[in-house]
From TrEMBL:
CDD domains assigned to the protein according to its UniProt record, in alphabetical order: LPMO_auxiliary-like
GO CC terms in record: plasma membrane; side of membrane
PANTHER family: COPPER ACQUISITION FACTOR BIM1-LIKE DOMAIN-CONTAINING PROTEIN, HYPHAL ANASTAMOSIS-7 PROTEIN
Bilayer topology term: Lipid-anchor; GPI-anchor
Entry-linked Pfam families: BIM1-like_dom
InterPro entries named in the record: BIM1-like, BIM1-like_dom
Entry keyword annotation includes Glycoprotein: yes
Localization in the cell: Cell membrane
Region called Disordered, residue ranges: 150-180
Signal peptide residue numbers: 1-15
Domain Copper acquisition factor BIM1-like: 14-150
Name recorded for this polypeptide: Copper acquisition factor BIM1-like domain-containing protein
NADP keyword on record: no
Amino acid sequence: MFPIRLLALAALTEAHFVLQVPTSLGFSDVLEGTAPCGSFDISSRAGESSWPLAGAPFQLITTHPQSDWQIRAALLNDTANFQPLVPVVSQQGTGTFCLPAVPGIAAWEGQDAVLQAIQHSADGELYQCAAIKFVPGSAAAGPQSCKNSTNVSASFKPGSTASSPGNSSTTTSHKSAAEKSWADPASGPLMLAAPLLTWLAVLY
């Protein structure tokens, strides 16, 4: 088996983005714009990853110099309703982009779910998904490759919420742990809960 980085680089000549961690349900450059999972079966459990409620790494490699990202999840038995795991992230620069500990949804402990990554870029919306299961426990250790490329930077969009692109939808009654840690954008500088400070440092 080739290392994650080599597998991704093999596809980069045509790719928009390649989800590296967690394991993608599949990648098709031609059909990556097909919601909700880039043409792959949203019910597939291929490569299922355990996702600790305290957080798990999210890593990809992108060829788009500027994008907005939605990182969302839906229960396997309710894939019409995606919930944001973090606010929308604005990314600049090409290469590896990684968040070391994206939090899970406590109410979904022990349940099978689907993680969805949506890239909003110059050529439209692109999708990849991964099979995950929310489990209790401390944050999972990320791979050594979980660090942004030197020219990649990112920040949360204040006050952002997940929208409903493609044929997937979002309910707004649930707020992730990450969203709850942000202050009201109108009140001044955004404040973060202590558990998020470590992994958010990678964004800057």
